[in-house]
Amino acid sequence: MSEAEVTTEAPDSFDGLRALLLSRHDAMPKRLKQLATFALEHPEEVAFGTVAGIAEHAGVQPSTLVRFAKSLGYDGFSHLQQIFRDRLRERFPDYRERLKGLRSPEGHHVHAASLLEGFAGAAALSLDRMRGSVRPEELARAIETLAKADTIYLLGARRVFPVIAYCAYAFGKLGVRAILIDHVGQLGPEQLATAARRDAVLAISFTPYAPVTADLAAGAAQRNIPVVAITDSAFSPLVTSADVWLEVAEADFGAFRSLSASFALAMALAVGTAEKRAEG
Amino acid sequence: MSEAEVTTEAPDSFDGLRALLLSRHDAMPKRLKQLATFALEHPEEVAFGTVAGIAEHAGVQPSTLVRFAKSLGYDGFSHLQQIFRDRLRERFPDYRERLKGLRSPEGHHVHAASLLEGFAGAAALSLDRMRGSVRPEELARAIETLAKADTIYLLGARRVFPVIAYCAYAFGKLGVRAILIDHVGQLGPEQLATAARRDAVLAISFTPYAPVTADLAAGAAQRNIPVVAITDSAFSPLVTSADVWLEVAEADFGAFRSLSASFALAMALAVGTAEKRAEG
DNA sequence: ACAAAAATGGAATAAAAATTCCAATATATA
DNA sequence: TATATATTGGAATTTTTATTCCATTTTTGT
Known about the structure:
The structure is a homodimer. Chain A is α/β, with parallel strands linked by helices. Chain A has two domains: 14-87, Winged helix-like DNA-binding domain superfamily/Winged helix DNA-binding domain (Arc Repressor Mutant, subunit A); 129-279, Glucose-6-phosphate isomerase like protein, domain 1 (Rossmann fold), CATH 3.40.50.10490. Chain A has 13 helices and seven strands. Chain A has helices spanning 14-24, 30-41, 43-48, 51-58, 62-71, 77-103, 108-133, 136-148, 161-174, 188-192, 211-222, 237-241, 260-279, and strands at residues 152-155, 178-180, 200-205, 227-231, 244-247, 252-253, 256-257. A five-stranded parallel sheet of chain A has the order 2-1-3-4-5, with helices on both faces. In chain A, helix 5 (62-71) crosses helix 6 (77-103). Chain A starts with 13 loop residues before the first helix and ends with a helix. Residues 1-7 and 91-107 of chain A have low confidence and may be disordered. Chains A and B meet through helix 2, helix 6, helix 7, helix 8 and helix 9 of A and helix 6, helix 8, helix 9, helix 10 and helix 14 of B. Chain A binds a DNA duplex through helix 2 and helix 5. Chains A, B: Residues 15-91 form the HTH rpiR-type domain. Chains A, B: Pfam families: HTH_6, SIS. Chains A, B: This is MurR/RpiR family transcriptional regulator. Chains A, B: GO terms for molecular function: carbohydrate derivative binding; DNA binding; DNA-binding transcription factor activity. Chains A, B: Keywords: DNA-binding, Transcription, Transcription regulation.
């Protein structure tokens, strides 16, 4: 930056800093831009971390952090960090204020926010419950089964379709061959027709169990294709078809159930499978 | 302290620490008692301060602070300070710590159960963070925008496709007309072509932003179709196209980010929209 | 009141962290 | 394409911060 520069900036509030970062962002050199993004995405890390630690996480050199601070008009990194710390200090009273605001009979803000709280709460509860219901040995067996398979067929419909769609993304990223049965044009059975014994099916279904999923899983089991199932109770139709099954009971809020625990479990299966394959 | 002591304490949560401090308080020597009181009255100062600074404010010697920490069973002041910092950071310090421990220190194999813990932890962390980043007024505005729309077009690709797919399910259940842009046959632009001013677009995109999503959202904005966006930073290309945008920063574990917070937010939007319509 | 043990203050030392500096690389300008 | 200019990486240095140590004071138990 040819030294100098800096003109009149160095905002002393977090909001001011964010504004400056946003306005300058496009004109910044690569590494500084990287830091700007990182700082806004991980403000607590900047508040508490050390130059070395933050630099590593953000993928830059320590010196770049100091330069970054100076280019914004601060004395050095420590000065910049102060802004982030001040903001965190303020957050406690802020939060209390916000809760107070929530109760105010101003109507819809309140309601919208409590909806969000409700869904977040249900998700957190589901995650917590899962600790008790998924047994490590079963999980390990499920991973083994998937790891041995040539191709993994992903089966799930309606409410749980998002989970299985995400599996397709994750397996792809991990280099594991997987086929998403998406039922386009109601071609589910045909999409699964090529599956053989050396493959495996990962099926997910919760009450009210979508008939397609149960039927296709049963068909696969009859053809001796290994089936790994994620479902919500021992009464699920998937259980009879499955070689290994994992139990997940999602909590609900209003009419809608969370999917958070299922996602976490699905991701663990995907990464576990990829790791297992890398080993052997 | 005749050296020794310490027995089995060193609580790793703030609440545990407070309990210990209160129970021991009466039996403590003068200066340590002074510090116990100070620490509980000025926790943020302990979280952010330096040994010298805190010592001065509390009216003791720096060495006393170190002694204080050790008498509670910690390695030293820095260790004690960590407890205070974790508390300020969020209410899930255990998760953060656990995540740190789980992150494979290179080549180290993480077994199945800790994978699951890791993903569950990332999800919980994301949910908790969302409390801070989504502002109730913005959420209410987003809901209003969607409630006014005739048809809602759902836009999201790759990693976030599951979220938008779930929105399609939820809106359908709730009797809200919504169209999922699923890009089958790369027909995304055509699927969105019928959208008009009286409609609205709900778009989701996180880093690395899928170009289609940004492009289609920008196109919609140019045609004066209201756009509600869920994204992860102010730098997102969606921000420029959006009439209202909501910020969600998902935590990651290994190479994969959680989607839990996004799901909770999407569900809140869906239910909020349906309720708003039912009202008037 | 006396000895023994504990607690304290403060300087000395060690450890950790921030900052500076310069050579190497990349980017823009003519 | 050549030259100037900006950017970056990384080691060296300085500064800050935590910790240790020991002499002195205070407290405790007899």
